Amino acid sequence: MEIGKKLKETTSLSPPLLPAARKALVVPLLLLLLIVSVAPPTASDGVRYDYRAYTECKSHPEPALYNGGILRWANKVTDFRKEDDGNYSPAFVLYNMSAATVYSFSCWVKIDGTSTAHVKAKILTLANAASQCLGTALVRNDCWSFLKGGFTLNSASETSVLYFQTASPNASTISIRSASLQPFSPEEWNQHREDRIQLNRKRFVNVHVADSNGNRLVGAKVTVHQITRDFPFGSAISRTILGNKPYQEWFNKRFNAAVFENELKWYATEPYPGKEDYTVADQLLQFVQANDAVVRGHNIFWEDPKYTPAWVKNLTGSQLHAAVSGRIESLLSRYKGDFVHWDVSNEMLHFDFYENRLGSNATVEFFNTAKRADPLATLFLNDFNVIEVCDDLSSSADSYVSRLRQLADGGVTFEGIGLEGHFSKPNIPYVRAVLDKLGTLRLPIWLTEIDISSSFDPKTQAAYLEEVLREGFAHPSVDGIMLWTAMDANASCYQMCLTNQNFSNLPAGDVVDKLLGEWQSKETLGTTNDRGSFNFSAFLGEYKLSVTYHNLTAEGTFSLAHSDDTKHINIRYNGSLGSPFSLNPLPHLVSYSTRMGPQHMALPGPGLQMVRNTKA
Q1: Exposed e or buried b for every residue in 187-224, given b needs 16+ CB within 10 A?
Q2: Quick count: other Cβ atoms within 10 Å of Cβ 133?
Q3: Which tens digit of pLDDT belongs to each residue from 44-60?
Q4: Model-level pTM?
Q5: Buried b vs exposed e over 333-362: b needs ≥16 C-beta within 10 Å?
Q6: Residue 299, preceding bond cis, omega within 30 degrees?
Q7: Per the domain annotation, does 192 fall within a domain?
Q8: Could you say which DSSP state residue 82 is in?
Q9: Does residue 12 form part of some domain?
Q10: What biological process terms from GO does the record include (predicted)?
Q11: Residue 567 belongs to what domain range?
């Protein structure tokens, strides 16, 4: 069901639409247009982005975000007029939309005429009849569902229509409540990211220096240097990296996480029944572990029959069940404890090879068997087009949530959400909205296979990649990012390479280096103030700390993990000022503050002492 066929005369609040505009709205079924005249959108005047979202269906809609934004008065409308064919739907006509503005949209949706249906919100630019999907929701007839999305326009538009559609032939009425459209300038949108990075990826630290009597020491020199990053940021690798020292050095300089492109997939490890070969996977794992990177296990099963081993396709019933059981046992017994994640069922929102042959409970068995085999690994679903596009209803945010809940009802305890991220031109406000929705489940979200289509030139790829990476890193629900940029023997990649065969960065590689530089704390230098303290903010991770007072230096390491509290590190100067003394080695200190304050542990011997909290 989609808006169109004829357009009712506009109210006196709105100028009449041109014939070309009427023609642009011609589609199979007629729905009512609620015409809303909107003044030219302006900057949001300091409005902060609202990360709220909902995945549960509610008996009554929540109030509109941003008090409706530029649609605030339209939420007073409660009735819609009926068309000749009996169909209803609201729409909003918007004027003077800017190409330089980021629009965040949300509403609550209910449908009549069928029990459930996917509803899309779309924006139509009348001047060129171009439309784009800006958000979806899986809607019911007995409660209200939350739709959240957003859009940017390729060019300014004098007249646009924000409307709704569903593919269900039985749906007769789409009802909308608490609609909101909030504009943000690019500067505001970027500032939201920076604010979230400060809140979720960094932490305030206070170094206190005092003598043995607790008297504050002024002028102590403090040096802080980041050793490792807490946030996992990595790339796919393939057998090409083995024995290739320049490639290995290039990779290790940048990434603290890895995933094997194809080398763990069933067709690679067991191309013929009973003929297992883990040689390449073992070598890749050895390389990653030697460089202290975490590694994702991708994947146990791939639901797409195109990538199922040829010999497995011929199996049915008990033979297929024995084969899949053998696959899990062989893979996870060999690598138990080596992989932090396992993608158990890859792309099952789009394909159902195993459930189609083994029954609807097959995936439940896969997850439960994998958890027993490798209990410390985090188990993931992983799929495409969840954040990339709005039009693929198989993998909408609500479809993902619905599938998770179905499997949970079968006994699966879910632990992670994998979003591939094979982008064409990214719709960044839509990406944020989907992450908001999935984030309500409070599960780790990883962007698992990020790249940009090779249909774009390298500079455009790099620009789009930067937007996606900035959005992902800033979002509070994202726990890690992996790039799908493994290089093969011909120095080519699936869609996007970061470097050429000589390991000179391509534009996308320059973006990665720029962001890694931004997302790591620079060396911090300072001196304690008149309160004997030195304060700074730093990215989460491992740090080396050096404090010098009267030619005596104390050195140690500390970790910054996420917390709302300031981390306090206390250093004591023991002994007489100006007297020669030695300093006991302090190879590591862990110092986390609590709201109750630090609990100190004294270290023996004279000199400067790192005093650490006993609670990590």
Answers
A1: ebbeebbeebbeebbbbbbebbbbbeeeeebeebebeb
A2: 20
A3: 568 999 999 999 999 99
A4: 0.88
A5: eebeebbbbbbbbbbbbebbbbbebbeeeb
A6: yes
A7: no
A8: P
A9: no
A10: polysaccharide catabolic process
A11: 202-227+521-613
Q: Which two tokens stand for residue 91?
A: 């729409």
φ, ψ (nearest 5 deg) of residue 109: -130, 145
Please name every residue paired with 539 in a beta bridge, in sequence order, or none if there are none: 202
**Which position has the higher pLDDT, 2 or 150?**
150
Give the Å distances, CA to CA, from 520 to 198, 512, 524, 593: 12, 12, 11, 22
Whether 9 is catalytic: no
Q: Are 103 and 181 in contact (CB under 8 A)?
A: yes
State whether 303 and 353 are in the same domain.
Answer: yes
Same domain, 220 and 84: no
Buried b (16+ CB within 10 A) or exposed e, 451-489: bbeeebebeebbebbbbbbbbbbbbbbbbbbbbbbbbee
Tokens found for residue 539: 């990215």
pLDDT exceeds 60 at position 42:
no
Radius of gyration of the chain (CA): 28
- On whether both 304 and 453 belong to a single domain, the answer is yes
For residues 86-115, average pLDDT? 88
User: φ and ψ at 461, to 5 degrees?
Assistant: -55, -45
Tracing tokens 């003929």 back to the chain, one arrives at 275
Residues 267 and 172 in one domain: no
CATH code for the domain of 173: 2.60.120
Q: Which of 499, 396, 315 is closest to 148 using CA atoms?
A: 396
Q: Quick one: pLDDT at residue 550?
A: 87
Please say which residue of 493, 518, 543 terminates a domain.
518
In a domain, 549, yes or no: yes
196, part of any domain: no
- Measured CA to CA, the distance from residue 350 to residue 304 in angstroms comes to 8
Task: Write the CB contacts of 306 (distance below 8 Å, at least 6 apart in sequence).
Answer: none
DSSP, residue by residue, 276-307: ---HHHHHHHHHHHHTT-EEEEEEEEE--GGG
Question: How many domains does the chain fold into?
Answer: 3
Q: Active-site residue among 188, 347, 388, 471? A: 347
Could you list the beta-strand ranges (E) of 310-349.
341-346
For residue 109, what is the DSSP state? E
Do residues 527 and 409 both lie within one domain?
A: no
CA 403 to chain centre: 19
| Among 263, 270, 303, 449, the one annotated catalytic | 449
* Residue 6 scores a pLDDT above 90: no
For 35, counting Cβ atoms within 10 Å of its Cβ (0-12 exposed, 13-18 middle, 19+ buried), the class is: buried
Q: Are residues 537 and 550 in the same domain?
A: yes
